[in-house]
Amino acid sequence: MAISQPLSVRIEGETLRVAAPQLQFLGGDVLQRLHNGIAMNYVFKIGIAPDRYGKPINETTYRFVVSYDIFEEKFAVNRISPNPRSITHLSEAAAQAWCLDSLALSTTGLSPDQLFWVVLEYRSEEPKSSSSAAADSRDSMIDQLIDIFGRKSQRQESRGSFPSGPFRLSDLRKTR
Amino acid sequence: MKLRVVLLLCAWLAIRPTVFGQAPATIEKTEISGIPEDQLSSALRADLQKLVGQAYDEKAAQQIAERIQTELPEYVATPTTAPGTEASRILLVFVIAHNINARYFVEAVELKDIDKSKVSEALWADMQKMVGHPVDDAGADRMRDRLAVELKNKHVRRSVVRGNQPQHVRIVYEAPGQNSIGFSFTGGYHSRQKFSGRLDLRYTFFDFTGVNVAAVNNAEKLSERYAGLQYGYWIGYKRVRFDMNYSSFKAQWSPGTLLAASTSSAAGLNPGLYRLRDTIEPTVKLTITPGLHITLGAFASQLQLQSPALHFESVRTATGNLEYGVYATSSGNHLISGNYDLHVSGNTLNSSRTYTRHVWDQSYTLKRKQGRSKYYSWAWDRMSVDLKLGRITGSAPMFERFTLGSARTLVGWDKNEIAPLGASRVAYGAISYAGKYASISFQSGALWDSGQPKVLRKSIDLHILRLGDIVHAPGPLRFFLNVAVPGIGIPLRSSNGRPMFTLGGS
Predict the structure, then answer these.
(1) Less Cβ around it within 10 Å: N or C end of chain A?
(2) A68: chain B residues, CB-CB within 8 Å
């Protein structure tokens, strides 16, 4: 179990940006799936909460598709939303860093001395085809029970939540 | 002269493509793969058409791909070529997809662990239609789903692996079975305590529930050698696992233990040597995080005692265990792990013994990373520090008492010599280093009963790892020599420091 280090948070203009060098979301079964040439969807949610367990007040969702070139042994990342963009020829660490570097939060509405927490959540899943979604809905109750209790779901792979704080805007490092 | 001219001509023909390069192929057709073509601007589509009939220029194709990516920034666009209808012609395909592997062409579609006779001809034919085209994730997944329906197995997996031709891949469909059966054998040898071994047979249904049977003959774990069968059933749901184990073991005591027991009995303290031990043990294991587990349970043992007369004792104990493991750094090289184990038995459980047993095991392991993470083995280049502290209060049965001096702890000493009846207190520590082909450890420990003096014993333990590799043994012999792990334990004492030989330790 890796010790979850707090996110490091900085200000760029009017936005908050995060870095999490300890967070390795391309690991375990997901990495194996990527090495098998399968693309993985990642959904990141980042928000500001008044306290550690509070509900984020302005949450933004980012969607990525990560794939691994089985010949060149490099990662490619597509940011689907917001602001679609793609990048290729990345190492594992660079692919993870690129995803996290994309995440940004507006600081509008936060006063300089207000305490707040930054909550980062992610989950990954193998892209699901429409036919498999339809097939799932036709499953018998026994099939569904086996799916719930049985072998780890093929599509739901990993997830994590990293609340970090408390921060004050006035204390944060400004990079621009 | 003629011959010289012919040779020069041949040489010229041979080196001409190398010196001047092959004549570029003509683009016979351009295609867009992965998205409907109308998602591109009309200007870009027109420029694509202009390429037809021109000589293939890699730089120009790359520029078109960049323009596609500018228009569709959420995709990766890659130009790739396929043979045309004539040798000098090619198809220029722009693959637009989320998966970077979409730029490779499918060389073959294969089945692994799937009986092909169970796949319909229609599906097999449709699967083979993917050959010769770029990898289409959506299409390949549709085939997987159809396969899952035909095989009635929802767990069909798909993978993309390198093909035999450059830039070509194979799509492999695999269907893991619902049922799995496995067996394993572990064993060891100690020159005083002789052989110990365990043969496990397991049946698992969908990693969800399973049963196992084990044949056990063990001389190193407890004061006695015990042999018999153990049956288990488990069922797991996400972070909760329920286990139910039943075991029936016959006990065999060493002459030293029998002598010590008779001496103890003469002094009015009957240690309670048993001949048979039947135990039923239900437990529930909760996984709080991947590195933190709590196990709660109970066991009820029925002991058939042989002294002073044949009779039965019933020991009922509540158990709790906290197991943890934490990597101190993100590199994963520093592992801090351990567990705390608590057994409580008393009148409230209607037990014939009243006791409490605490054990704390703690270890720190430093693993040196070698090369890329997927290739290095943690078993190599490892340093570790282990500590064990244990305490029993009350009158615990023999199988709960602590021992040291086996093929794994205080190697070089014999447990039957140190404390033939075990002890109610234990303190043990070891510092170990394991390289690729050998390991060495310094071990130190003491066993005592309340009110008795503590005697600290020390030993040095050496093991040869991967003996089969060292001697370059052939085939199966190499496997057996590698798992044999011969070792020697040297007791550090002033007299009678005869070493113990072990197999299967480290």
Answers:
(1) C
(2) 100-101
CB contact under 8 A, B75 and A86: yes
> Across the interface, do A37 and B208 touch by the CB < 8 Å criterion?
no
Claim to verify: residue B167 and residue B214 sit in the same structural domain: no
Whether B435 has its CB under 8 Å from any CB of chain A: the answer is no
Q: What is the pLDDT of residue B231?
A: 97
Could you tell me if residue B155 is inside a domain? yes
Domain boundary among B57, B76, B98: B98
Q: What count of other Cβ atoms lies within 10 Å of the Cβ of residue A97?
A: 16
How far does Cα A61 stand from its chain's mean position?
9
pLDDT in tens, A94-110: 999 999 989 988 888 88
Q: Do B208 and A70 touch (CB under 8 A)?
A: no
| Residues 23 through 42 of chain B touching chain A, CB cutoff 8 Å | none
CA nearest to B147 within chain A = A132
Q: B427 pLDDT exceeds 80?
A: yes
- B373 contacts in chain A (CB < 8 Å): none
Which one of B174, B200, B225 terminates a domain? B174
Is residue A141 included in any domain, yes or no? Answer: yes
Q: What is the number of domains present in chain B?
A: 3
pLDDT-based confidence at B384, cuts 50/70/90?
Answer: very high
Asked whether this complex has an ipTM greater than 0.85, the answer is: no
Could you tell me where the beta strands, DSSP code E, fall in B346-381?
Answer: 355-367
Decide if A84 and B167 are in contact by the 8 Å CB cutoff: no
Structurally, chain A folds into a number of domains equal to 1
Query: Alpha helix locations (H) across B236-385?
Result: 255-266
Answer whether A22 touches B (CB < 8 Å).
yes
- Flag whether B16 is in a domain: no
Rounded CA gap, B495 and B497, in Å? 5
Q: Do A150 and B207 touch (CB under 8 A)?
A: yes
User: How much is the pLDDT for B267?
Assistant: 79
A38 — contact with chain B (CB < 8 Å)? yes
DSSP for residue B410: S
pLDDT by residue (tens digit) across B99-120?
Answer: 899 889 999 999 988 888 889 9
Q: Which residues of A touch B236 (CB under 8 A)?
A: 149
Residue-range definition of the domain harbouring residue A58: 8-169
Structural domain span for residue B167: 104-174
**Radius of gyration of chain A from Cα atoms?**
18
Query: If you average pLDDT over residues B355-384, what whole number do you get?
Result: 73
For residue A174, tell me if it sits in a domain. no
Number of alpha helices (DSSP H) and beta strands (DSSP E) in chain B: 9, 22
- Do residue B315 and residue B447 come from a single domain? yes
- What whole-number distance in Å separates Cα of residue B334 and Cα of residue B327? 5
Whether residue B207 and residue A152 make contact (CB cut-off 8 A), yes or no, is yes
Residue B14 has pLDDT above 80, yes or no: no
What is each CA distance from A31 to A35, A37, B176, B253, B429, in whole angstroms? 6, 10, 19, 51, 38
Residue B19 in any domain: the answer is no
Same-domain pairing of B333 and B456: yes
Comparing B262 with A132, which gets the higher pLDDT? B262
